[in-house]
Amino acid sequence: MKESSPESDLVLFQTITSVVGKSIAFICLTIVAGMLFSTCKVSAAAIEECESACSKTGILEVTSTSCECMPPEPISPSPFVLPSTRR
Asked: Strands, DSSP E only, in the chain?
């Protein structure tokens, strides 16, 4: 039986890690390119519907799949106003 030398094992290991690294980089670049070239357009009807739903507070974000309204402003009394004393 032929034993492999440490040098050939090192070359094999470097080759395998190189191929795996390049494959991962290629997959990542393909995903990024797909995301850049994809068209995720929001229709005018979706924007109008979101505007009517968020008419009081305003629109925070509209995407092709969701509509998010601004949170309502909290009602906090001024620290310079004395509380009313009702009797």
From this structure: 59-62, 67-69
Q: Evaluate if residue 39 carries a pLDDT over 70.
A: no
When the pLDDT of each residue in the chain is averaged and rounded to a whole number, the result is 84
- pLDDT (mean) for 3-14: 84
What is the DSSP code (8-state) at residue 80?
Answer: T
User: How far apart are the C-alpha atoms of 70 and 39, rounded to whole Å?
Assistant: 26
**Longest CA–CA separation in the chain, Å:** 103
Q: Are 64 and 41 in contact (CB under 8 A)?
A: yes
- What does the block give as tokens for 77? 């009394």
- Residue 85 neighbours by CB under 8 Å, 6+ apart: none
Strands 67-69 and 59-62: antiparallel
Domain chopping of the chain, boundaries: 9-38, 41-70
